[in-house]
Amino acid sequence: MNLVIDIGNTTAKIAVFDGEELTEIHYGSNRSLACLPTLAGSFPIKRGILSSVVTITEEMRSQIAASGIPMMWLTPETSLPVANLYQTPQTLGPDRLAAVVAANYMQPGKNCLVIDAGTCITYDFIDAAGNYRGGNISPGMQMRLKALNEFTDKLPLVAHEGDCPLWGVSTETAIRAGVRQGIGLEIEGYIRREKEKDPHLLVFLTGGDGFSLAGPIKETIFADKMLVLKGLNRILNYNIINDTLS
Fold first, then answer.
1. C or N: which end of the chain has fewer Cβ atoms within 10 Å?
2. Same-domain pairing of 149 and 68
3. What percentage of the chain reaches a pLDDT higher than 70?
4. What average pLDDT does this structure show over 172-179?
5. Which residue, among 233, 227, 229, 224, has the nearest Cα to 19 in the 3D structure?
6. CATH number of the domain that 30 lies in?
7. pLDDT digit string, tens, across residues 68-99
8. What is the pTM of this model?
9. What is the DSSP-derived secondary structure letter of residue 226?
């Protein structure tokens, strides 16, 4: 069994895989891995992989060491089952890389656009030959809502849940509708543009924030909130098979 840890800007996901099957998942703070002792004692875990977009605390390092699980850290030097053509791999978020690895593994031989809607919204493209070509980064929903409040004098901080009419009928609904609909239209625009180039393009949507996309657009999407975890597990298994782990 494999332990897969994905530490994001907001939360940490800790999962157990049996082969390719996700059998257990825990969500927690991105500043602690308190559930590790329980998982290590409950499953016959042989190896693990960790991906983080934040600085790992000393407490977390101690928790990993105490678990006794040999841990591979995803770095720019890690062997991958895809070709990474990003010009600055040392600055590439490992979650973005893991997501395209998963998409390529699940749909080999296809051009794939991977959209991760979380703290930021990322758009990443991997071609049919398994070449990661790069991607774009855009502010996520909470970031947009906070920016409207922080960079203006009178606009309030609005929760993303609530009334979201086509046209706002109050400042609160105008902000919420503007942000939510703006993101939806942005995503749809990326998909339409890329499908004009390749009508057979496959689109994966992952991340914590869901959006109401247009019917024809929504029907073309593989929605999978576990895409990053699956990609990390794929990278770990690839390294095990190819004996690159010490």
1. C
2. no
3. 94
4. 96
5. 233
6. 3.30.420.40
7. 899 999 999 999 999 999 999 999 999 999 99
8. 0.90
9. T
- 154 with 221, same domain: the answer is yes
Pair (103, 45) in one structural domain = no
Residue 37 within a domain: yes
SS (H, E, C) 125-156: EECCCCEEEEEEEEECHHHHHHHHHHCCCCCC
In this prediction, residue 34 carries a pLDDT of 85
Residue type, 139: P
**Residue closest to 114 by CA, chosen among 11, 194, 174:** 194
Domain span including residue 202: 95-228
User: Is the pLDDT at 153 greater than 90, yes or no?
Assistant: yes
* Terminal C-alpha separation, the chain: 17
pLDDT tops 80 at residue 202: yes
Tokens 């329980």 sit on residue: 38
* Domain count for the chain: 2
Residues marked as catalytic: 95
Report the alpha-carbon distance of residue 175 to residue 76 in Å, rounded.
39
